[in-house]
Fold Aminotransferase class V-fold PLP-dependent enzyme.
Amino acid sequence: MEKHAILMTTGSLALSNEVKAEMQLDVDSRSLQFRLTTAFIRELILGMVDGNGTHSVVPLPGGGSYGMEAALASFVSRTDRPLVCVNGNCGEQILEIMRHRGIRARSLRTPCDRPISVNELGRCLEADPDISHVCLVHCESPTGVVNPINELVQLAKQHKVKTIVDAVNSFGALEISARRTPFDVLVTVSDKCIEAPPGISFVIASLDELESSVSDLGSLILDVRNHWRSIEKTGQWHSMPPTHVVQACKKALEVLAVEGINKRSIRYAAVSDEIVRATEKYAIPLLGPRVRSPTCVALTSHGTINSQREFDALYAHLTKYNLYIDPNLNIETCSYTIGCMGAVKPTSIYLLATAFRVFFQPVDAIRAPH
């Protein structure tokens, strides 16, 4: 019988027992009970972003990539000229989606260990008045760098440019308010800081955007407006929902509402600090605390972990302890990522410290002078 993996990744997460317990009940997706559950989820999320009266929450079956492609397909036409802010994998994926849809997108590129510059975005907007949208990521992967979305979105608003925000790695741990950050569209998921199972993406869009239209969408299933009209009219999802995941997500959002976003952020930051202390003899954080998300910590072990092959050895070693971190080395920074979200227990961090010591100490012994 397989043991429960000790998940210290940036997704999927170690879930609490009370959230997992909600997946035991079978329910009809068209029943009043399930429609009320969906309405409750939408209402909670909308309240968390201060979006009442200005925005609406559209749940979609699928992960963050699905939700982001649906948002881009629905709200960016092939004649638009979007600018994509790129300082990590999520920004690169937005660009790739644009290319596949035949959209001529510009990019503002920043090294993956630095936040997007507000001044640089301002220069881009001044230089190119044809820019129609700014697409940006709140918390990038794999470094965990946090971009200043308040300032970036407000700047775009000043230039009458629409904004699409990827908040997959931040919603639920970092405060986002549609009043202070007047985004047009924001995408998040169930399986990150909400701490529910994977399977749902949420497109939070302004009512102005939802009530407008894009003439050349070219997809029925990716049409966020179709999903929105269906759920507004009937309370039912436009596509088959993952019913068990939806019930678990409701419980996870209830838990988040009680804990509060600020306290969840503090909890994640405490886990991050403990991981840094547990591994400090063998690794150092890539980013300083001012630009580092509390949701994960990117570490470097220069001199020992300098290639994917060397990292693979560490990863394989950790799995012997049933520990799982993100499986890829960021080649640009030679860093690897450990997640701080979910039900990370002190015993898991202690086990991580032990595994690091066993892995790195033989290396230290070989290098020690005789």
In short: The chain has two domains: 6-11+260-360, 18-257. The radius of gyration is 21 Å. Residues 365-370 have pLDDT under 50 and may be disordered. Residues 18-257 form a domain with the Aspartate Aminotransferase; domain 2 fold (CATH 3.40.640.10).
